[in-house]
From TrEMBL, chain A:
SMART domains the record matches: Proteasome_A_N
InterPro entries for this protein: Ntn_hydrolases_N (IPR029055), Proteasome_alpha (IPR050115), Proteasome_alpha-type (IPR023332), Proteasome_alpha1 (IPR035144), Proteasome_asu_N (IPR000426), Proteasome_sua/b (IPR001353)
Gene3D superfamilies, per database record: Glutamine Phosphoribosylpyrophosphate, subunit 1, domain 1
Pfam families: Proteasome, Proteasome_A_N
Top-level division of the source organism's lineage: Eukaryota
Record protein name field: Proteasome subunit alpha type
TrEMBL record, chain B:
Species this protein is from: Remersonia thermophila
Cited PANTHER family: METALLOPROTEASE TLDD, PROTEASOME SUBUNIT BETA
Protein name listed in UniProt: Proteasome subunit beta
Region called Disordered, residue ranges: 115-134
SUPFAM superfamilies linked to this entry: N-terminal nucleophile aminohydrolases (Ntn hydrolases)
Function: Non-catalytic component of the proteasome.
Subcellular localization: Cytoplasm; Nucleus
PROSITE patterns linked to this entry: PROTEASOME_BETA_1 (PS00854), PROTEASOME_BETA_2 (PS51476)
């Protein structure tokens, strides 16, 4: 009957030195739909697949603005993400009030890291069942961070979390060297292409199920605030990465730029 | 035998009589600082085209007694800003320790940012050693001190200081602002606390009445004006000293000299002063 005696709480080690509750929480992240984040020298982009519970329902949001300069993408339990997002919003606002500046992204990510880690070390608490990609810009430029339920946080050049995200990560690894010098549109297109890699066979990107979020900082440090694009706003981007456009040199996006063709 | 925890470790009532617990708890109301004790007098500062000059004498007075004559009342912050303290010296020391902690936290944070990540490697290394990207600048520091002072005032335990903060704002323009024990905050091209507000401020305004005027001032001009003001303050402020500290904040960093001496004093004006003491006319 008892498959596992060591997974009742998050304070007990198994004899192999594992904490199962934390591993289960990491498993919850893999149940969420896929989100991709990429950072260049000037921009950071988040793209996500939204899911609807049934045909008649609306789609669950995946990208959330936290402050003017930061946004998150979530994979896992939405209700846990709500707690973290509210916390992050409050901390950013408090920092703005006390110091008159926007909070450095690393400081913010360290805060949720510590908050989540505490949950893995106290009896009666449980880890958050959500993983985040935190995208933001500060005086040091654009940043992308990964956050795990264990409390682990890490700065990334590009990353994907959620269901079937391994395929997206493979795409990102293959194109890793290109990201640093990408402009805003190229970065988003790379994100969407990575996203497409993770799609199940008969599904594709539509204006209903795709979200894009971008923030930017130029040389002078001026910031393009984090903004989420949904619905018709993303149609040009989706078209530009459509399968039949893949080989064509001219991009389908409204800007009329030439699209980079990947091998 | 009395086994209540309240009786643990106490003399036994049956042997020594009932224990007088009245002096265990003090029924007096809580009293925070109600007046400053050891005090520093004026701090003065003026902006010039590339930064800010600040000065304060090295005296800490105990009432009218010149008690400590080597007190440093100008403190650098992250080698990008200077904080000048007037008012209570113990509260100044508290704030100094607090700001040191803040600076250490900030320095660690900056190290974390530069240690790795795409963003930091994408930026060129900072041109000047003084201006460090992403760290608290003088404007941020002043905002923080304002909140701190106002919070303490609202808990009826004020930090009895008038503070000047000098450095640069986020647009890298010279920044000078004041905050007092009530959390009142304002900025101006020239600022002075205490007696300096009456005696030095009018002199400094002759040179920097507006931001435009201050932007024309050279470093040497600004230092000369501040030295002149320190001299006037020594002449007329009975709680002042002829030894003072002078700080110049520029984009290259903070330059504090803590053993300045007033030179070329002339007390000739003193004998013409009438209207106090034992004089009859």
């Amino acid at each position: 009957m008892f498959r596992n005696n060591y997974d009742n709480d998050s304070v007990t080690f198994s004899p192999q030195g594992r904490i199962f509750q934390v591993e289960y929480a990491a498993e919850a992240v893999k149940q969420g739909s896929v989100v991709v984040g990429i950072a260049s020298k000037t921009h950071v982009a988040l793209v996500a697949i939204k899911r609807n519970a049934e045909e008649l329902s609306s789609y669950q949001k995946k990208l959330f603005p936290i402050d003017e300069h930061v946004g998150i993408a979530i994979a896992g339990l939405t209700s846990d993400a709500r707690v973290l997002s509210n916390f992050m919003k409050q901390q950013c606002l408090a920092h703005r009030l006390t110091y008159g500046r926007s909070m450095p992204v690393r400081t913010l990510v360290d805060m949720i890291g510590s908050k989540a880690q505490i949950n893995t070390q106290h009896y009666g608490k449980r880890p958050y069942g959500v993983g985040l990609l935190v995208a933001g810009v500060d005086d040091h430029g654009p940043h992308l961070f990964e956050f795990q339920p264990s409390g682990m946080t890490e700065e990334m050049v590009a990353f994907a979390i959620g269901a079937r995200s391994q395929m997206a990560r493979t795409y990102l690894e293959k194109n890793l060297d290109k990201f640093a010098d990408c402009d805003r549109e190229e970065l988003i297109r790379h994100g969407l292409k990575a996203l497409k890699e993770s799609l199940v066979q008969d599904r594709e990107l539509t204006v209903d199920n795709t979200s894009v979020g971008v923030a930017g900082a130029d040389k002078a440090g001026v910031v393009e605030p984090f903004k989420v694009y949904d619905g018709q706003e993303v149609s040009a981007w989706i078209e530009s990465v459509a399968d039949d456009k893949e080989a064509a040199p001219a991009g389908g996006s409204g800007e009329g730029e030439t699209m980079e063709v990947d091998s | 035998m009395d086994h209540r925890p309240q009786a643990w470790g106490r003399p036994r009532d049956d042997v020594y009589g009932p224990y007088d617990a009245s002096y265990l708890h003090n029924n007096q109301p809580k009293t925070a600082t109600q007046s400053p004790i050891v005090t520093g007098t004026s701090v003065i500062a003026i902006k010039f085209k590339d930064g800010v000059v600040m000065a304060a004498d090295n005296l800490a007075s105990y009432g009218s007694l010149a008690r400590f004559t080597d007190v440093k009342r100008l403190r650098p912050f992250l080698s990008t800003s200077v904080v000048g303290f007037g008012g209570d010296v113990s509260d100044m020391q508290f704030l100094d320790r607090h700001l040191n902690e803040l600076a250490i936290d900030e320095a660690y944070e900056a190290e974390g940012c530069s240690a790795g990540g795409l963003g930091s490697s994408a930026q060129e290394p900072d041109a000047s050693p003084g201006a460090s990207k992403g760290q608290l600048n003088a404007a941020n520091l002043h905002k923080y001190l304002t909140k701190l002072m106002y919070r303490r005032r609202n808990s009826f335990d004020p930090l009895w200081n008038q503070i000047l903060v000098a450095g640069f704002d986020s647009a890298s323009a010279p920044f000078l602002a004041s905050v007092d024990l009530r959390g009142t905050a304002f900025t101006s091209p020239s600022l002075a606390t205490g007696y300096g507000a009456m005696l030095a401020q009018p002199i400094m305004r002759k040179y920097a009445a507006t931001e435009e005027d201050a932007a024309k001032l050279t470093r040497d001009d600004a230092v000369r004006v501040v030295r002149e003001c320190m001299k006037v303050l020594f002449y007329r402020d009975a709680r002042s000293l002829d030894r003072f500290s002078l700080a110049v904040v520029t984009r290259d960093g903070v330059d504090i000299s803590e053993d300045e001496v007033l030179e070329q004093q002339s007390w000739a004006f003193a004998e013409r002063i009438r209207g106090y003491g034992t004089q009859t006319v």
